[in-house]
Design brief:
21% strand; 5-stranded parallel β-sheet; alpha/beta; 4-stranded antiparallel β-sheet; 224 residues; 8 helices; elongated
């Protein structure tokens, strides 16, 4: 899952980025509204977090412009103000939720997970494909009851494949949702991580779950 954070207070932006990365998200950070708009328009994010009070372009204007351009990625608005009118303005601009500073990281994370469940259609924290199981809250992965240890990037890649089980996922789609803005499209890093996952997920099992679709990308499970 990939998140865009647009926050001009660098201490808060750093705190959010660090916490979200620890929670297995790929994170891009912008410090003003214009940079945030640029990233939001050229990249595919699963959710975006905007502060309302931003230099160059505020969060409400960003939200309005993105919605006008049919970019419907869930948006969580942050602000130090707590007036009812400000909350109404944020939601009327097209934001999906609103959080007033100061807030706990746990509350922010809970709200993000609700937004992600709403957009992916996934109503449970546990993803299952055949005998493979991934818990999005505890980060535990097992196949046929056997625990599988994954690093952060392996977990993110497997989670994305499982959320799209039965569908072909291209390398471009993987790079957009699993890696951040620093991803080098000229490398073979995606193929390398797919190979890592195959060794951990499929090795020793008669049924192989990760499939290569020649010329198209990868698929987890059987076609839908």
């Amino acid at each position: 899952m990939r998140i865009l954070v647009v926050e001009d207070e660098k201490s808060i932006a750093s705190f959010l980025a660090r916490g979200l990365k620890e929670e297995k998200f790929a994170v891009d950070v912008a410090y003003d509204g214009e940079e945030g708009m640029y990233l939001a328009e050229i990249n595919a994010y699963d959710v975006m977090i905007f502060d309302i009070m931003l230099p160059k372009k505020d969060g409400i204007a960003m939200c309005q412009e993105l919605r006008a351009r049919k970019i419907n990625t869930p948006i969580l608005m942050l602000t130090a103000r707590n007036a009812v009118e400000d909350k109404i303005d944020g939601l009327n601009s097209g934001a999906d939720d609103y959080l007033t500073k100061p807030f706990s990281f746990g509350e922010l994370l809970a709200r993000l997970r609700v937004l992600l469940k709403r957009t992916t259609g996934n109503k449970t924290s546990v993803l299952k494909v055949d005998d493979l199981q991934l818990n999005q809250l505890t980060y535990e992965v097992q196949r046929d009851g056997r625990p599988i240890k994954l690093n952060t990037k392996e977990f993110m890649l497997l989670q994305y494949l499982m959320l799209n089980a039965g569908h072909v996922i291209s390398r471009t789609m993987i790079s957009e949702h699993v890696w951040n803005e620093e991803f080098d499209s000229m490398t073979n890093i995606i193929d390398v991580y797919i190979a890592y996952l195959r060794r951990k997920i499929d090795k020793g099992f008669r049924k192989k779950l990760i499939r290569t679709v020649r010329g198209a990308g990868y698929m987890l499970g059987t076609p839908q």
